[in-house]
Amino acid sequence: MTPIKAAVCRAFGAPLSIETVHLRAPTGVEVEVALEAVAICHSDITYAEGGWGGDLPAVYGHEAAGRITAVGAGVRGLSVGDPVVVTLIRACGACPSCASGRPVGCETPADPASTPLRTEGGETIVQAMNCGAFAEKVVVEQSQVVRLPEGIDMPAASLLACGVITGVGAVVNAASLRAGEDVVVIGAGGVGLNAIQGARIAGARRIVAVDMTEDKLETAKAFGATDGVLASDAKPWRAAIKAMGRGADVVVVTVGAIPAYDQAPRYLANKGRVIMVGMPHSGAISTYEPVILAATGQGMTGSKMGDVVIQRDIPWMVDMYAQGRLKLDELVSRTWALEEINDAIADTKAGGARRNVIVF
Questions:
Q1: Domains parsed from the chain with CATH numbers
Q2: Interatomic CA distance for residues 211 and 320, integer angstroms
Q3: What is the pLDDT of residue 46?
Q4: How far apart are CA 355 and CA 190, in angstroms?
Q5: pLDDT-flagged residues of the chain (< 70)
Q6: Reduced to 3 states, what is the DSSP secondary structure of residue 135?
Q7: Which of 200-237 are b and which e, b meaning 16 or more Cβ less than 10 Å from the residue's Cβ?
Q8: What is the Cα gyration radius of the chain?
């Protein structure tokens, strides 16, 4: 067992505590990765606040990048020293979802007893979201990592593990956006900005960002939005439809706010589709008038992690970044030390940050 520093959640809603924990060596198809950067995602915060339940103590964090420091005997195609991005997408490769090309929906659950983390006293620590990346090192399955090119900026690369693939993938994979279609993105935070980038890359005609502040709308335009609408307007869908000249073909909801979900269908054109990305707390309920959706042929589709295949989509996005066509550096609001993680979380909750990143 290797001693490492990690930010441990021992009570929902309480500050994380920086502790020395113990990480076992990788076995089988596992790899050990010394992390160089891990971003703070709102999903980590929701879990740490108890919004989706779960067991404690736990180490959260799932948007990470670093270098492989050890490999299990069954690992193929990866070596010690390789730079990699670490994702939460653990895929068995054999269940119906994996076999049909949707590894994000893998139906083989992880064995809780297999967590590689222990306290100094031997107590089991939950490796949350298959990662536990608010730590100096992680041990994860090979299916969760993708090799990166040498020299890539690690704080920027860490965002490819979740926020970027979720936003871009929601448009490219889940919505199957065609060139010339019109898009509304509700929420111009980290995931929303990447949905906007995805729409730009896919050739959308108009991209309307909807958010609560003018500052975020201006940022959205820098990422590719053609228009901005304040969500605080009495009927923001009217301004969006005016900007497009018609309803939207695709509406991507990237925030977990119930009012956003209630209003999303109002932006749609006939046959338009809502892509549901933002995740409200468990038990939160949204309401719709189903006769409208039925009569107009509209639809609503959930999208988990952008429906990506990481071994296919992350190399594509890395290449887009290298060409200057996908913004990553601009998504990093600030870097923090692990000891500052509670301040970084508070800053993220304040709503102004695109992505705060812990660096090691």
A1: 2-161+327-359 (3.90.180.10), 167-303 (3.40.50.720)
A2: 26
A3: 92
A4: 6
A5: none
A6: strand
A7: bbbebebbbbbbeeeebbebbeebbbbbbbebeeeebb
A8: 20
Six token digits for residue 213: 């502040």
Give the whole-angstrom CA distance, residue 250 versus residue 236.
16
Cβ 231 vs Cβ 210: under 8 Å = yes
Reduce the DSSP state of residue 9 to 3 states and report it: strand
- In the numeric block, the tokens 């979740």 are attached to 162
Look-up of token digits 């693939």: 165
> Phi/psi at 108 (nearest 5 deg)?
-95, 105
Identify the DSSP state of 324: T
The residue type of 139 is V
- The side-by-side arrangement of strands in the sheet containing 248-253 is 227-230, 207-211, 183-186, 248-253, 268-276, 299-302
Encoded tokens for 193: 């900005």
pLDDT in tens, 127-161: 999 999 999 999 999 999 999 999 999 999 999 99
Q: What is the DSSP string of 11-75?
A: STTSPPEEEEEEEPPP-TTEEEEEEEEEEPPHHHHHHHTTTT---SSEE---EEEEEEEEE-TT-
For residue 120, the model assigns a pLDDT of 87
What is the pTM assigned to this prediction?
0.93
Of 11, 12, 65, nearest to 39 by C-alpha is 65
